[in-house]
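User: Predict the complex with nicotinamide-adenine-dinucleotide.
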Amino acid sequence: MAEQTVRVGVIGTGMGRLHMEAYSKVPGVVINAICDINEEEARQFAQKYGAPHVFADYRQMFDAGVIDAVSIAVPNYLHAPMTIAALEAGIHVLCEKPMATTLADAQAMVEKAKATGKRLMVHMNMRFRGEAFALGRLVRQGILGEVYYGRASMIRRRMVPTVHFPPTGIMGRGPWFLDSEKAGGGALMDIGVHTFDLMWWLMGQPEPVAVSASTFRKLYEADAARMGVKFDVDELASAFVRFGSGAVAFFDVSWAANQAPEWNVRVCGTKAGLQVNPPTLFRDNGGILENTAIELPETEQVSPQQHFIECIRNPEKELISSGAEALQVMRVLDGIRRAAACGHEVSL
Ligand SMILES: NC(=O)c1ccc[n+]([C@@H]2O[C@H](COP(=O)([O-])OP(=O)(O)OC[C@H]3O[C@@H](n4cnc5c(N)ncnc54)[C@H](O)[C@@H]3O)[C@@H](O)[C@H]2O)c1
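Assistant: Here is the predicted structure with nicotinamide-adenine-dinucleotide placed in the model:
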């Protein structure tokens, strides 16, 4: 049977271009509209992917009745208003991370999805990378036993958006990344959201209950000022999270640090442990700890866009990285901002 045709639109031609490319590989998906305030760039991508409609104003795109689903890949402060407007227009939403800049906005997005019955997914693409996806499946099969500890780091050394990213690059081009009102936070909201989300997902998504944290901006504020760019967000964030299950997790992320680069997520359970870099399962076999390398066959790899479309076609299919899950992550990120501001542990 032929797949139901789904007409998609993409807002934003930075990271949004990766959404376009992914949709172009999903059978039965028609990229029908591209929207960006940079209309010229929107036109170029519309041409590349054969989209007949180009918009500079997202409301006009939603009102035109030309799309069933939309990817939203614009500055963070626009995620909530665009998502809510799309859902109200009866359009399913795949929104970029972080889902919003405030907890209240994230809640409103999830409530609107419930009220309209439309799908809301947040683009936590790290979950879909082959090995992480395979590890996630093992976690859901209960392979870890009781999960009690998570630890994750994404330490970048010289990757402050605008300061280190070329304005002609494919993403991370806008100075909005460094502005708290537009981004909601710095390394925390940009890469902390990925790092915490992946760790939390691989821990089996325990209920977060409390957070202690500190955030820092020590290295590049003066450089940004010389470039005439407002920079009032964190460069480095460090957080300790407690869960209702009794498990705890520590993670740290940085855009800039005088340190070796690092990327890993580790989870400890009573029956086994795991890490994502390199993807490994650690299992006790008669007193000897065995390491098993984890792979996902190419035939089983799914892009977030393909999964989103499958969930639109089948309303019974459970979303990986639903708005409701992202709201839990947002509660933690919001707690981290509050804990860093007050200097002690806060309840969520
Ligand atoms: N999942 C990931 O791995 C990943 C990677 C990079 C960026 N992102 C996310 O994607 C989003 C966009 O990031 P980016 O790097 O592409 O930023 P960017 O600054 O490079 O591009 C943003 C684009 O949005 C457009 N835009 C701004 N306001 C608009 C409006 N009102 N209507 C239509 N278009 C508008 C801009 O013209 C620009 O083309 C952010 O939320 C970011 O966190 C996610």
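The chain has two domains: 6-123, 127-299.
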